[in-house]
Amino acid sequence: MAAQGWADHQGKGSHMVGWPRGVLTNNPRVPWGLSSFYDQSYVIAAILENPEPHDRQAYPLYGPVEMDHHGIAGAVSLALGIPVSYDPISVEEFAAGLASRGISPHLIQHLSNVAIDYQNGIFSGTNNLIEVIGNRTPLTVEEFVTSRKDAFQRAGPLFVPAAET
Q1: Domain containing 54 — which CATH number?
Q2: How many folded domains does the chain comprise?
Q3: What pTM was estimated for this model as a whole?
């Protein structure tokens, strides 16, 4: 999962860290089986080490559990020990936010289309291909965030203050 940055929110007297400002959709209840880049790298390495049995194959790589964005926010909250919420936005708002940060039009188009694919359920599902091909148990969202807490710090390079409301 590629977070574009964290958005601060002040809510009901407590500081909240909003789910990544710009991910992903105005339909947050579509479940998807997240897999981390780290898990995917094991599959890629295994294929490169022994390419023949994988010739002409396409593998949908899913994580161990399907979650919607509210479930992801809950897992991130548990891992970080702070309240985390998901605030859905439209694909257009997402694209405009990326453009305002100087992101390339090509990347904006790609990420916007990924968001639309998500809305259409393209990423729904789970399977065991990371274990079978990559020879590792895929990380859950909570395990991934716990192992990379420094990437979720408010002062880090991906931190984006929330828009004024």
Answers
A1: 3.40.50.720
A2: 1
A3: 0.70
